[in-house]
Amino acid sequence: MHGFDNIRFLLVREFKLFWSNKVFVIAFLVMPLILSLILGYVYRKGHLVELPIVVVDLDKSPSSYKLIDMLEESNKLHVMDTRNELGDLNHILLSEEATAVVVIPYRFEANLLSQKQPEVNCYLNMFFTMTSSVVGGAIAQCIGTMNAGILMALLENNGVPKSVAAQQYESVKHNVFFQFNPAGNYQYFLWPGLIFSILHQLFLLALALSFSREYAMGTFNAQGLLGYSKSALLLMFVKFFPYLLMGLFNIAIYFGLSSYFRIPLPAHPLVLLVSQLLLITGASLLAMLYSLLFTIPLKASQMLMSIASPAFTISGFVWPQVPTVLVEFSKIIPLVPYLQVTRSVLIQGGNWQDVSVPMQHQLILLGIYFIITWFVLRKKINKTMGVAKDPLKQIL
Length: 396
Prior knowledge:
Layout: H1 3-20, H2 22-29, H3 31-42, E1 51-57, H4 62-73, E2 77-83, H5 89-95, E3 100-104, H6 108-113, E4 121-124, H7 129-157, H8 162-169, H9 186-207, H10 212-217, H11 232-260, H12 269-293, H13 297-308, H14 311-314, H15 324-330, H16 335-347, H17 356-385
Parallel strand pairs: 1-2, 1-3
Antiparallel strand pairs: 3-4
Helix pairs in contact: 1-11, 3-9, 3-11, 7-8, 9-11, 9-12, 9-13, 9-16, 11-12, 12-13, 12-16, 12-17, 16-17
């Protein structure tokens, strides 16, 4: 065989190897779609609203009823039950699956009228830390609003004009402006990152078998793979090409489902697309390197799992206070700079200049993994074929 015939044969051979592994076929063609739909529907609301709370009203007065109405009117809260007796709080939280229990004390209204500052106790279910913080803030806002109304009413009763009473209460104005993702939609924030963290793992695990499988089948020799080409560059390209097509297919799925779930497209979609291609290429090169260093397929996969599994957690994407040691370690993982690009482009409307640093990081990782993988593969080819070391003759 010559030139183009060899390349065509190797590509056909690689596609046959891909299709022969039904797990990979399902993983790349079906699982990303299924997982994208599942995650999309899970986070479809995007907002934490109507979180269930239980109110224990020990006063049963017009003022306590008014507070309950204010809690119910909050779009963040839903008063699922109102009780008049204080029982086992833990049992209420568990049995009702409530996010909080609000206890309005006995003589609540009487103490309000006599300005004795009654205490409303709020017991948060901290099992769900995110929902508990939202519920706690919403309850505090309702009570703060009621406090303001009561104070203004007292001032008016003492003869202070309504406009003056409002000014005395609000001595300092507090304005809050939401710059990025003003709706606070959790789906916009989390869904894109999760999808590509899954793809990152798929590429690492699939290409961990790229060369280790050749060793396991006994085809990394002159009678097998190397009989068609001894070019390290060509063999790397052949191993990568089928998965590049799978990557493009999954990127198309991502953009299609983004439209389906009404996730706004970035202002600069080309920036995101380039970063996604860099992620796929970098993860593939890293996986090929592992497949050369660990020639037993299972071992190569297991070693890569040590990188793939914690990648999303230590990336700082959802939790910014990652220990310094883990931050430094995460810099070798292709997913980490991609998530930085994603956050900037999708949430903050970043352009090429805004993501220049994480994209440079992606390019550096890609270059390093490319050079090391090519060098190791070149060395193994020479060793297998018994070629003397001659860097001038063995450039490719």
